[in-house]
Amino acid sequence: MRFAVNFEDFELAPDLTLTVLAVDDNPANTTLLSNTLARFGYRVIVANDGPQARQMARQQRPDLILLDVMMPGEDGLSVMRALKAETATAEIPVIFISGVDEVDTKVSAFELGAVDYITKPFHMQEVLARVKLHLRLSLATSSIVAAQTSKLRQLQEAQEALLKKPEDLPEAQFSVIYKPLEEAGGDIYEVIKISESIYGYFIGDISGHDIATAYLTSAAKALLEQNCSPIYEPHESMAIVNKVLANLLPRDKYMTACYARLNRRSAHLEIINCGHPPTLFLPLDGAPQLIESSGDVLGMFPQASFGYTNLRVKTGDRLVIFSDGLLEAQGGVWTARLDDLLQAVSRIDSASLPDFLNGLLNEMGCLDSGLYDDLVIMGIEV
Amino acid sequence: MNFEQMADNLMLDQEDFKDLVRFFLKVTGEDLARLASAYDSADLAGASAAAHSIKGAAANLGFQAVADVAANIERLTRSGDASTVISGSEKILDLLNEIRSEL
Protein backbone atom coordinates (compact mmCIF):
# COMPACT_ATOMS: atom_id res chain seq x y z
CA MET A 1 0.00 0.00 0.00
CA ARG A 2 1.32 3.41 -0.80
CA PHE A 3 -0.31 5.11 2.12
CA ALA A 4 -0.56 2.98 5.17
CA VAL A 5 -2.31 3.72 8.40
CA ASN A 6 -0.57 0.90 10.15
CA PHE A 7 3.13 1.40 10.69
CA GLU A 8 3.80 -2.31 10.36
CA ASP A 9 2.39 -2.28 6.85
CA PHE A 10 4.64 0.63 6.11
CA GLU A 11 7.71 -1.32 7.16
CA LEU A 12 6.69 -4.25 4.98
CA ALA A 13 6.68 -2.14 1.85
CA PRO A 14 9.28 0.57 2.25
CA ASP A 15 9.38 1.62 -1.39
CA LEU A 16 6.53 3.35 -3.11
CA THR A 17 6.31 1.15 -6.19
CA LEU A 18 2.67 0.60 -7.02
CA THR A 19 1.63 -3.03 -7.22
CA VAL A 20 -1.05 -4.37 -9.53
CA LEU A 21 -2.45 -7.88 -9.13
CA ALA A 22 -3.52 -9.30 -12.52
CA VAL A 23 -5.93 -12.23 -12.37
CA ASP A 24 -6.84 -14.32 -15.41
CA ASP A 25 -7.03 -18.08 -15.89
CA ASN A 26 -5.19 -17.79 -19.19
CA PRO A 27 -1.49 -17.21 -18.43
CA ALA A 28 -0.98 -15.63 -21.87
CA ASN A 29 -3.27 -12.78 -20.79
CA THR A 30 -1.60 -12.25 -17.42
CA THR A 31 1.82 -12.30 -19.07
CA LEU A 32 0.69 -9.67 -21.55
CA LEU A 33 -0.67 -7.42 -18.79
CA SER A 34 2.38 -8.00 -16.68
CA ASN A 35 4.82 -7.14 -19.50
CA THR A 36 3.09 -3.95 -20.49
CA LEU A 37 2.36 -2.65 -16.99
CA ALA A 38 5.92 -3.43 -15.85
CA ARG A 39 7.20 -1.39 -18.75
CA PHE A 40 5.36 1.59 -17.37
CA GLY A 41 6.76 1.25 -13.87
CA TYR A 42 4.26 -0.89 -12.03
CA ARG A 43 5.13 -3.99 -10.07
CA VAL A 44 2.83 -6.73 -11.32
CA ILE A 45 1.92 -9.90 -9.47
CA VAL A 46 -0.10 -12.59 -11.17
CA ALA A 47 -2.73 -15.13 -10.15
CA ASN A 48 -4.28 -17.67 -12.52
CA ASP A 49 -7.27 -18.72 -10.45
CA GLY A 50 -9.67 -17.40 -7.83
CA PRO A 51 -8.26 -18.91 -4.62
CA GLN A 52 -4.72 -17.88 -5.59
CA ALA A 53 -5.96 -14.35 -6.32
CA ARG A 54 -7.61 -14.07 -2.88
CA GLN A 55 -4.51 -15.35 -1.14
CA MET A 56 -2.20 -12.94 -2.97
CA ALA A 57 -4.52 -10.01 -2.35
CA ARG A 58 -4.56 -10.80 1.37
CA GLN A 59 -0.82 -11.38 1.73
CA GLN A 60 0.59 -8.77 -0.62
CA ARG A 61 -2.06 -6.04 -0.48
CA PRO A 62 -1.76 -4.82 -4.07
CA ASP A 63 -2.75 -1.23 -4.82
CA LEU A 64 -5.13 -2.35 -7.55
CA ILE A 65 -6.56 -5.60 -8.90
CA LEU A 66 -7.37 -6.44 -12.53
CA LEU A 67 -9.83 -9.31 -12.30
CA ASP A 68 -11.05 -11.55 -15.10
CA VAL A 69 -14.74 -12.43 -14.77
CA MET A 70 -14.96 -15.80 -16.43
CA MET A 71 -12.64 -18.31 -14.81
CA PRO A 72 -13.16 -22.01 -14.19
CA GLY A 73 -13.97 -22.91 -10.59
CA GLU A 74 -14.23 -19.70 -8.60
CA ASP A 75 -15.18 -16.94 -11.04
CA GLY A 76 -14.36 -13.23 -10.81
CA LEU A 77 -17.63 -12.28 -9.18
CA SER A 78 -17.10 -14.81 -6.36
CA VAL A 79 -13.54 -13.59 -5.86
CA MET A 80 -14.90 -10.04 -5.67
CA ARG A 81 -17.45 -10.99 -3.02
CA ALA A 82 -14.75 -12.63 -0.91
CA LEU A 83 -12.39 -9.65 -1.25
CA LYS A 84 -15.08 -7.22 -0.15
CA ALA A 85 -16.01 -9.41 2.82
CA GLU A 86 -12.52 -9.24 4.27
CA THR A 87 -11.22 -6.03 5.90
CA ALA A 88 -7.68 -6.52 4.67
CA THR A 89 -8.74 -6.50 1.03
CA ALA A 90 -12.06 -4.63 1.03
CA GLU A 91 -10.54 -1.25 0.13
CA ILE A 92 -8.41 -2.41 -2.80
CA PRO A 93 -9.90 -1.06 -6.04
CA VAL A 94 -10.91 -3.80 -8.47
CA ILE A 95 -11.22 -3.36 -12.23
CA PHE A 96 -13.03 -6.18 -13.99
CA ILE A 97 -11.77 -7.51 -17.28
CA SER A 98 -14.06 -9.48 -19.50
CA GLY A 99 -15.34 -10.25 -22.98
CA VAL A 100 -17.69 -7.79 -24.65
CA ASP A 101 -20.47 -10.37 -24.79
CA GLU A 102 -20.94 -10.52 -21.01
CA VAL A 103 -22.92 -7.31 -20.65
CA ASP A 104 -25.16 -8.44 -17.80
CA THR A 105 -22.18 -9.28 -15.61
CA LYS A 106 -21.17 -5.61 -15.76
CA VAL A 107 -24.11 -4.69 -13.59
CA SER A 108 -23.33 -7.42 -11.07
CA ALA A 109 -19.68 -6.34 -11.01
CA PHE A 110 -20.51 -2.71 -10.22
CA GLU A 111 -23.07 -3.79 -7.63
CA LEU A 112 -20.35 -5.77 -5.90
CA GLY A 113 -18.14 -2.68 -5.77
CA ALA A 114 -15.95 -2.84 -8.87
CA VAL A 115 -14.53 0.57 -9.73
CA ASP A 116 -14.41 -0.06 -13.46
CA TYR A 117 -14.80 -2.53 -16.27
CA ILE A 118 -12.47 -3.19 -19.18
CA THR A 119 -13.55 -5.31 -22.12
CA LYS A 120 -11.40 -7.83 -23.95
CA PRO A 121 -9.58 -7.56 -26.25
CA PHE A 122 -7.47 -5.15 -24.23
CA HIS A 123 -6.49 -1.85 -25.71
CA MET A 124 -3.33 -1.26 -23.81
CA GLN A 125 -3.63 2.52 -23.85
CA GLU A 126 -7.04 2.13 -22.26
CA VAL A 127 -5.87 -0.39 -19.67
CA LEU A 128 -3.00 1.91 -18.68
CA ALA A 129 -5.20 4.98 -18.56
CA ARG A 130 -7.80 3.28 -16.38
CA VAL A 131 -5.22 1.73 -14.07
CA LYS A 132 -3.64 5.14 -13.62
CA LEU A 133 -6.95 6.90 -13.05
CA HIS A 134 -8.14 4.46 -10.41
CA LEU A 135 -4.82 4.41 -8.62
CA ARG A 136 -5.01 8.18 -8.43
CA LEU A 137 -8.55 8.13 -7.11
CA SER A 138 -7.76 5.42 -4.62
CA LEU A 139 -4.60 7.10 -3.37
CA ALA A 140 -6.44 10.40 -3.03
CA THR A 141 -9.14 8.73 -0.97
CA SER A 142 -6.88 6.69 1.25
CA SER A 143 -4.53 9.60 1.69
CA ILE A 144 -7.26 11.62 3.35
CA VAL A 145 -7.44 8.93 6.03
CA ALA A 146 -3.74 8.30 6.29
CA ALA A 147 -2.31 11.68 5.39
CA GLN A 148 -1.65 12.91 8.92
CA THR A 149 0.08 9.74 10.00
CA SER A 150 2.12 9.17 6.90
CA LYS A 151 3.12 12.79 6.45
CA LEU A 152 4.49 12.97 9.97
CA ARG A 153 6.30 9.75 9.42
CA GLN A 154 7.67 10.80 6.08
CA LEU A 155 8.91 14.07 7.50
CA GLN A 156 10.65 12.20 10.29
CA GLU A 157 12.17 9.71 7.89
CA ALA A 158 13.26 12.49 5.60
CA GLN A 159 15.04 14.21 8.45
CA GLU A 160 16.78 11.01 9.46
CA ALA A 161 17.99 10.30 5.98
CA LEU A 162 18.33 13.73 4.47
CA LEU A 163 21.23 12.84 2.29
CA LYS A 164 20.92 9.70 0.25
CA LYS A 165 24.24 8.03 -0.46
CA PRO A 166 24.97 6.24 -3.73
CA GLU A 167 25.53 3.02 -1.77
CA ASP A 168 21.99 3.27 -0.33
CA LEU A 169 20.55 2.97 -3.84
CA PRO A 170 23.16 1.21 -5.99
CA GLU A 171 20.68 0.53 -8.81
CA ALA A 172 20.12 4.27 -9.17
CA GLN A 173 23.74 4.52 -10.42
CA PHE A 174 24.42 8.02 -9.26
CA SER A 175 27.23 9.88 -7.62
CA VAL A 176 26.97 13.15 -5.75
CA ILE A 177 29.10 15.85 -4.20
CA TYR A 178 27.39 18.14 -1.70
CA LYS A 179 29.07 21.21 -0.23
CA PRO A 180 26.75 23.34 1.87
CA LEU A 181 28.02 26.81 2.68
CA GLU A 182 26.39 26.84 6.10
CA GLU A 183 24.76 24.16 8.17
CA ALA A 184 21.31 25.10 6.97
CA GLY A 185 22.11 24.66 3.31
CA GLY A 186 19.85 26.10 0.68
CA ASP A 187 20.73 23.39 -1.84
CA ILE A 188 19.06 20.00 -1.71
CA TYR A 189 19.26 16.85 -3.71
CA GLU A 190 17.16 13.73 -3.70
CA VAL A 191 17.10 10.38 -5.49
CA ILE A 192 13.78 8.60 -5.60
CA LYS A 193 13.09 5.03 -6.55
CA ILE A 194 9.90 5.14 -8.60
CA SER A 195 10.03 1.50 -9.71
CA GLU A 196 12.65 -1.18 -10.40
CA SER A 197 13.73 0.53 -13.60
CA ILE A 198 12.63 4.13 -13.04
CA TYR A 199 14.44 6.60 -10.83
CA GLY A 200 13.91 10.29 -10.20
CA TYR A 201 16.84 12.64 -9.57
CA PHE A 202 16.24 16.05 -8.10
CA ILE A 203 18.38 19.05 -7.34
CA GLY A 204 16.89 22.21 -5.87
CA ASP A 205 18.25 25.53 -4.70
CA ILE A 206 16.17 27.49 -2.22
CA SER A 207 16.72 31.24 -2.34
CA GLY A 208 18.44 32.67 0.72
CA HIS A 209 20.24 31.01 3.61
CA ASP A 210 18.41 31.01 6.88
CA ILE A 211 16.78 28.72 9.33
CA ALA A 212 13.57 28.54 7.29
CA THR A 213 15.37 26.75 4.50
CA ALA A 214 16.44 23.92 6.81
CA TYR A 215 12.83 23.16 7.57
CA LEU A 216 11.94 23.50 3.91
CA THR A 217 14.57 20.97 2.94
CA SER A 218 12.85 18.15 4.78
CA ALA A 219 9.42 19.31 3.68
CA ALA A 220 10.53 19.40 0.05
CA LYS A 221 11.99 15.91 0.30
CA ALA A 222 8.81 14.52 1.81
CA LEU A 223 6.86 16.18 -1.00
CA LEU A 224 9.10 14.59 -3.60
CA GLU A 225 8.80 11.12 -2.09
CA GLN A 226 5.06 11.48 -2.16
CA ASN A 227 4.60 12.89 -5.63
CA CYS A 228 7.26 11.28 -7.76
CA SER A 229 5.45 8.09 -8.68
CA PRO A 230 4.55 6.15 -11.83
CA ILE A 231 1.04 7.61 -11.87
CA TYR A 232 2.33 11.12 -12.40
CA GLU A 233 4.26 12.40 -15.38
CA PRO A 234 7.39 14.24 -14.24
CA HIS A 235 5.91 17.67 -15.01
CA GLU A 236 2.81 16.74 -13.01
CA SER A 237 4.98 15.79 -10.03
CA MET A 238 6.66 19.18 -10.21
CA ALA A 239 3.32 20.95 -10.63
CA ILE A 240 2.08 19.46 -7.34
CA VAL A 241 5.34 20.21 -5.54
CA ASN A 242 5.08 23.76 -6.87
CA LYS A 243 1.54 24.29 -5.64
CA VAL A 244 2.36 23.09 -2.14
CA LEU A 245 5.54 25.13 -1.97
CA ALA A 246 3.65 28.20 -3.21
CA ASN A 247 1.47 27.87 -0.12
CA LEU A 248 4.36 27.03 2.17
CA LEU A 249 7.05 29.52 1.20
CA PRO A 250 7.14 33.14 2.32
CA ARG A 251 6.36 35.50 -0.53
CA ASP A 252 9.96 36.41 -1.34
CA LYS A 253 11.25 32.85 -1.33
CA TYR A 254 11.37 30.34 -4.15
CA MET A 255 13.28 27.30 -5.25
CA THR A 256 14.94 26.68 -8.59
CA ALA A 257 15.07 23.00 -9.43
CA CYS A 258 15.86 20.36 -11.95
CA TYR A 259 14.09 17.01 -11.92
CA ALA A 260 15.27 14.19 -14.16
CA ARG A 261 13.33 10.98 -14.49
CA LEU A 262 15.20 8.10 -16.05
CA ASN A 263 13.47 4.94 -17.26
CA ARG A 264 16.37 2.56 -17.86
CA ARG A 265 14.09 -0.06 -19.37
CA SER A 266 12.54 2.08 -22.08
CA ALA A 267 15.76 4.17 -22.31
CA HIS A 268 13.94 7.44 -21.83
CA LEU A 269 15.25 10.42 -19.94
CA GLU A 270 12.93 13.30 -19.15
CA ILE A 271 14.20 16.52 -17.67
CA ILE A 272 12.02 19.16 -16.06
CA ASN A 273 13.64 22.53 -15.55
CA CYS A 274 12.17 24.93 -13.01
CA GLY A 275 14.17 28.13 -13.42
CA HIS A 276 17.38 26.20 -12.85
CA PRO A 277 20.73 26.31 -14.71
CA PRO A 278 21.08 23.88 -17.64
CA THR A 279 22.09 20.25 -17.18
CA LEU A 280 24.99 18.55 -18.86
CA PHE A 281 24.30 15.55 -21.07
CA LEU A 282 27.28 13.36 -21.93
CA PRO A 283 26.45 10.74 -24.56
CA LEU A 284 28.88 7.80 -24.53
CA ASP A 285 29.60 8.34 -28.22
CA GLY A 286 29.05 12.01 -28.95
CA ALA A 287 29.88 15.54 -27.95
CA PRO A 288 28.77 16.80 -24.52
CA GLN A 289 25.77 19.07 -24.69
CA LEU A 290 23.98 21.50 -22.41
CA ILE A 291 20.29 20.82 -21.99
CA GLU A 292 18.71 24.23 -21.59
CA SER A 293 14.99 24.75 -21.25
CA SER A 294 13.63 27.70 -19.39
CA GLY A 295 10.77 27.41 -16.95
CA ASP A 296 9.22 29.04 -13.90
CA VAL A 297 10.74 28.60 -10.44
CA LEU A 298 8.96 26.51 -7.80
CA GLY A 299 6.93 28.09 -5.03
CA MET A 300 6.32 31.47 -6.64
CA PHE A 301 3.27 31.06 -8.85
CA PRO A 302 0.50 28.51 -8.22
CA GLN A 303 0.20 28.05 -12.00
CA ALA A 304 3.67 27.56 -13.36
CA SER A 305 5.06 26.15 -16.55
CA PHE A 306 8.33 24.27 -16.67
CA GLY A 307 10.95 23.52 -19.26
CA TYR A 308 10.70 19.99 -20.61
CA THR A 309 13.24 17.87 -22.45
CA ASN A 310 12.78 14.27 -23.52
CA LEU A 311 15.83 12.27 -24.59
CA ARG A 312 16.45 8.78 -25.89
CA VAL A 313 19.49 7.46 -24.05
CA LYS A 314 21.85 4.51 -24.29
CA THR A 315 23.74 2.51 -21.70
CA GLY A 316 26.81 4.44 -20.66
CA ASP A 317 25.35 7.89 -21.33
CA ARG A 318 25.69 10.29 -18.42
CA LEU A 319 23.74 13.23 -17.12
CA VAL A 320 25.18 15.80 -14.74
CA ILE A 321 22.83 18.04 -12.76
CA PHE A 322 24.25 20.82 -10.64
CA SER A 323 23.37 23.97 -8.74
CA ASP A 324 24.59 27.39 -9.78
CA GLY A 325 27.37 27.10 -7.17
CA LEU A 326 29.36 25.09 -9.73
CA LEU A 327 29.45 28.06 -12.09
CA GLU A 328 29.79 30.80 -9.50
CA ALA A 329 32.80 29.53 -7.57
CA GLN A 330 34.90 32.32 -9.05
CA GLY A 331 32.21 34.93 -8.47
CA GLY A 332 30.10 36.38 -11.24
CA VAL A 333 26.88 35.03 -12.70
CA TRP A 334 26.55 31.47 -13.89
CA THR A 335 25.34 32.29 -17.39
CA ALA A 336 28.81 33.63 -18.25
CA ARG A 337 30.52 30.32 -17.54
CA LEU A 338 28.60 27.75 -19.60
CA ASP A 339 31.27 27.69 -22.32
CA ASP A 340 33.95 27.19 -19.65
CA LEU A 341 31.95 24.23 -18.42
CA LEU A 342 31.87 22.50 -21.82
CA GLN A 343 35.59 23.09 -22.22
CA ALA A 344 36.24 21.75 -18.74
CA VAL A 345 34.39 18.55 -19.65
CA SER A 346 36.58 18.01 -22.69
CA ARG A 347 39.70 18.21 -20.51
CA ILE A 348 38.59 15.53 -18.05
CA ASP A 349 39.52 11.96 -18.74
CA SER A 350 38.03 9.86 -15.95
CA ALA A 351 36.30 6.56 -16.30
CA SER A 352 34.36 6.52 -13.04
CA LEU A 353 31.49 8.84 -12.22
CA PRO A 354 32.88 10.07 -8.85
CA ASP A 355 36.27 10.82 -10.43
CA PHE A 356 34.56 12.69 -13.22
CA LEU A 357 32.58 14.88 -10.80
CA ASN A 358 35.71 15.64 -8.78
CA GLY A 359 37.58 16.48 -11.96
CA LEU A 360 34.80 18.84 -13.00
CA LEU A 361 34.83 20.63 -9.63
CA ASN A 362 38.58 21.00 -9.92
CA GLU A 363 38.41 22.38 -13.46
CA MET A 364 35.70 24.85 -12.45
CA GLY A 365 37.73 26.11 -9.50
CA CYS A 366 35.38 24.76 -6.83
CA LEU A 367 37.96 22.86 -4.82
CA ASP A 368 39.65 26.04 -3.65
CA SER A 369 38.35 27.38 -0.34
CA GLY A 370 36.15 30.51 -0.52
CA LEU A 371 32.90 29.18 -2.03
CA TYR A 372 30.39 31.90 -2.74
CA ASP A 373 27.35 29.65 -2.65
CA ASP A 374 26.17 26.17 -1.74
CA LEU A 375 27.18 23.59 -4.26
CA VAL A 376 25.66 20.30 -5.21
CA ILE A 377 26.52 18.26 -8.26
CA MET A 378 25.05 14.89 -9.17
CA GLY A 379 26.09 12.52 -11.93
CA ILE A 380 23.81 9.79 -13.25
CA GLU A 381 24.80 6.91 -15.47
CA VAL A 382 22.35 5.10 -17.74
CA MET B 1 1.54 -10.73 -40.32
CA ASN B 2 2.96 -7.40 -39.28
CA PHE B 3 4.47 -8.25 -35.89
CA GLU B 4 5.94 -4.80 -35.55
CA GLN B 5 2.54 -3.16 -35.83
CA MET B 6 0.95 -5.74 -33.52
CA ALA B 7 3.67 -5.21 -30.91
CA ASP B 8 3.18 -1.48 -31.24
CA ASN B 9 -0.55 -1.81 -30.57
CA LEU B 10 0.30 -3.47 -27.27
CA MET B 11 3.01 -0.91 -26.47
CA LEU B 12 5.65 -3.63 -26.44
CA ASP B 13 8.85 -3.96 -28.41
CA GLN B 14 9.00 -6.65 -31.07
CA GLU B 15 11.18 -9.12 -29.16
CA ASP B 16 8.96 -8.99 -26.06
CA PHE B 17 5.95 -9.43 -28.31
CA LYS B 18 7.44 -12.47 -30.06
CA ASP B 19 8.21 -14.07 -26.69
CA LEU B 20 4.62 -13.47 -25.76
CA VAL B 21 3.41 -15.04 -29.02
CA ARG B 22 5.52 -18.16 -28.34
CA PHE B 23 3.94 -18.37 -24.92
CA PHE B 24 0.49 -17.85 -26.42
CA LEU B 25 1.12 -20.73 -28.87
CA LYS B 26 2.02 -23.03 -25.99
CA VAL B 27 -0.97 -22.03 -23.83
CA THR B 28 -3.38 -22.21 -26.75
CA GLY B 29 -2.05 -25.66 -27.63
CA GLU B 30 -2.97 -26.73 -24.10
CA ASP B 31 -6.41 -25.12 -24.45
CA LEU B 32 -6.96 -27.06 -27.71
CA ALA B 33 -6.08 -30.27 -25.90
CA ARG B 34 -8.61 -29.35 -23.19
CA LEU B 35 -11.17 -28.62 -25.89
CA ALA B 36 -10.57 -32.02 -27.51
CA SER B 37 -10.84 -33.98 -24.27
CA ALA B 38 -14.00 -32.07 -23.26
CA TYR B 39 -15.46 -32.90 -26.66
CA ASP B 40 -14.51 -36.60 -26.27
CA SER B 41 -16.30 -36.78 -22.93
CA ALA B 42 -19.30 -34.78 -24.26
CA ASP B 43 -18.56 -32.00 -21.74
CA LEU B 44 -19.97 -29.01 -23.63
CA ALA B 45 -19.47 -26.55 -20.75
CA GLY B 46 -15.80 -27.54 -20.59
CA ALA B 47 -15.48 -27.17 -24.37
CA SER B 48 -17.08 -23.74 -24.22
CA ALA B 49 -14.71 -22.61 -21.44
CA ALA B 50 -11.66 -23.78 -23.39
CA ALA B 51 -12.86 -21.95 -26.52
CA HIS B 52 -13.51 -18.83 -24.42
CA SER B 53 -9.96 -18.91 -23.12
CA ILE B 54 -8.51 -19.20 -26.65
CA LYS B 55 -10.76 -16.40 -27.88
CA GLY B 56 -9.69 -13.91 -25.21
CA ALA B 57 -5.95 -14.50 -25.48
CA ALA B 58 -5.99 -14.47 -29.29
CA ALA B 59 -8.02 -11.26 -29.44
CA ASN B 60 -5.74 -9.55 -26.92
CA LEU B 61 -2.66 -10.24 -28.98
CA GLY B 62 -4.39 -9.27 -32.22
CA PHE B 63 -4.88 -12.70 -33.79
CA GLN B 64 -8.42 -11.93 -34.85
CA ALA B 65 -8.86 -14.93 -37.18
CA VAL B 66 -8.10 -17.35 -34.31
CA ALA B 67 -10.39 -15.38 -31.99
CA ASP B 68 -13.25 -15.52 -34.53
CA VAL B 69 -13.09 -19.31 -34.92
CA ALA B 70 -12.86 -19.78 -31.14
CA ALA B 71 -15.79 -17.39 -30.58
CA ASN B 72 -17.90 -19.44 -32.98
CA ILE B 73 -17.06 -22.68 -31.14
CA GLU B 74 -17.79 -21.03 -27.79
CA ARG B 75 -21.16 -19.70 -28.93
CA LEU B 76 -22.35 -22.97 -30.50
CA THR B 77 -21.14 -25.29 -27.71
CA ARG B 78 -22.83 -23.04 -25.16
CA SER B 79 -26.12 -23.62 -26.94
CA GLY B 80 -25.51 -27.37 -27.09
CA ASP B 81 -24.11 -27.66 -30.59
CA ALA B 82 -20.72 -29.42 -30.84
CA SER B 83 -20.73 -29.75 -34.62
CA THR B 84 -17.97 -27.21 -35.26
CA VAL B 85 -15.55 -28.34 -32.54
CA ILE B 86 -13.46 -30.64 -34.73
CA SER B 87 -13.34 -28.51 -37.87
CA GLY B 88 -12.84 -25.36 -35.80
CA SER B 89 -9.99 -26.92 -33.80
CA GLU B 90 -8.29 -27.95 -37.03
CA LYS B 91 -8.72 -24.47 -38.41
CA ILE B 92 -7.20 -22.96 -35.24
CA LEU B 93 -4.31 -25.42 -35.43
CA ASP B 94 -3.62 -24.33 -39.01
CA LEU B 95 -3.69 -20.68 -37.99
CA LEU B 96 -1.34 -21.33 -35.07
CA ASN B 97 1.09 -23.12 -37.39
CA GLU B 98 0.96 -20.17 -39.74
CA ILE B 99 1.79 -17.81 -36.86
CA ARG B 100 4.62 -20.09 -35.72
CA SER B 101 6.12 -20.21 -39.19
CA GLU B 102 6.31 -16.42 -39.31
CA LEU B 103 8.07 -15.98 -35.97
Written overview of the protein:
- Chain A contains 11 helices and 15 strands.
- In chain A, the strands form 3 sheets. Chain A has a 5-stranded parallel beta sheet with strand order 2-1-3-4-5, with helices on both faces.
- The longest helix of chain A has 37 residues.
- Chain B is mainly alpha-helical.
- In chain B, 83% of the residues lie in helices and 0% in strands.
- Chain B has 5 helices and no strands.
- The chains are: A alpha/beta (382), B mainly alpha (103).
- Chains A and B meet through helix 2 and helix 7 of A and helix 2 and helix 3 of B.
Terminal CA distance of chain B: 9 Å
SSE order of chain B, one letter for each helix or strand: HHHHH
Q: How confident is the prediction overall: mean pLDDT of chain B? A: 94
Number of strands of chain B: 0
Write down how many β-strands of chain A occur, each being a DSSP E stretch of 2 or more residues.
15
Mean pLDDT of chain A: 83
Helix content estimate of chain B: over 70%
What is the topology, as strand order, of the major beta sheet of chain A?
A: 2-1-3-4-5
Please sum up the structure shown:
Chain A is of the alpha/beta class. Chain A has helices spanning 7-12, 27-39, 50-60, 76-85, 87-90, 103-111, 124-160, 211-227, 234-248, 338-347, 353-363, and strands at residues 19-23, 43-47, 64-68, 94-99, 116-120, 174-179, 187-193, 198-206, 255-263, 268-274, 279-282, 289-291, 307-312, 318-322, 375-381.
Summary tags:
heterodimer, A: 382 residues, alpha/beta, five-stranded parallel β-sheet, elongated, disordered N terminus, B: 103 residues, mainly alpha
Record the SSE blueprint.
The complex is a heterodimer of chains A (382) and B (103).
Chain A: H1 7-12, E1 19-23, H2 27-39, E2 43-47, H3 50-60, E3 64-68, H4 76-85, H5 87-90, E4 94-99, H6 103-111, E5 116-120, H7 124-160, E6 174-179, E7 187-193, E8 198-206, H8 211-227, H9 234-248, E9 255-263, E10 268-274, E11 279-282, E12 289-291, E13 307-312, E14 318-322, H10 338-347, H11 353-363, E15 375-381
Parallel strand pairs in A: 1-2, 1-3, 3-4, 4-5
Antiparallel strand pairs in A: 6-15, 7-8, 8-9, 9-10, 10-13, 11-12, 11-14, 14-15
Helix pairs in contact in A: 3-4, 7-8, 8-9
Chain B: H1 3-9, H2 14-40, H3 44-61, H4 64-78, H5 85-102
Helix pairs in contact in B: 1-2, 2-3, 2-5, 3-4, 4-5
